[in-house]
């Protein structure tokens, strides 16, 4: 990886980057999912979680955060430490794991998630890896789980293919947020098929940026 991902997060503070708007869209979907599942316990998995600001930001504004159990997987030590520090303020049970989120083993003790966050991944890995990750997503899911994912729509726009791969993997589309004035998009897919058991020893993607 050539990118300094810790520094990349600075762009959230830059209104021109669009990242803040994307974050708001992701948070809105997390919030909606938490509303829809209330008052039941909710299990969340976030792969390549960065500093966890999407989930942690939502939890900070909710009075029912204590029903959430979350596993955040992030490779970068600085970002993982930041997420861990921010998670201390939450009544949710949050495990921040500094590990390779592409390795299926990482999730072996996570249990089936009701909400899976795949944000900031699909713009940084090959098309083949995106397809492999989407195909594997049911392995992380509880019945009816939702996956929130992001991808830019720069030419050639891959999002039609990604949405098709989710359909092929047994998901139905809940939302696809794609503003005219910017190139980011946020997709949400709900697992309609049965979840699949976690296959150990799989490596779903490699960052190429
Ligand atoms: C584009 S950022 C997205 C961060 C966060 N999900 C967000 O949307 O703000 C990508 C993140 O993936 C992390 N990352 C890259 N490869 C990884 C891997 N194999 N396992 C875990 N994290 C990884 C980077 O360190 C970085 O924090």
Automatic annotation (TrEMBL):
Keywords: Methyltransferase, Transferase. GO terms for biological process: methylation. InterPro entries: SAM-dependent_MTases_sf. GO terms for molecular function: methyltransferase activity. It comes from the Bacteria. This is Class I SAM-dependent methyltransferase. The lineage of its organism: Bacteria, Bacillati, Actinomycetota, Actinomycetes, Propionibacteriales.
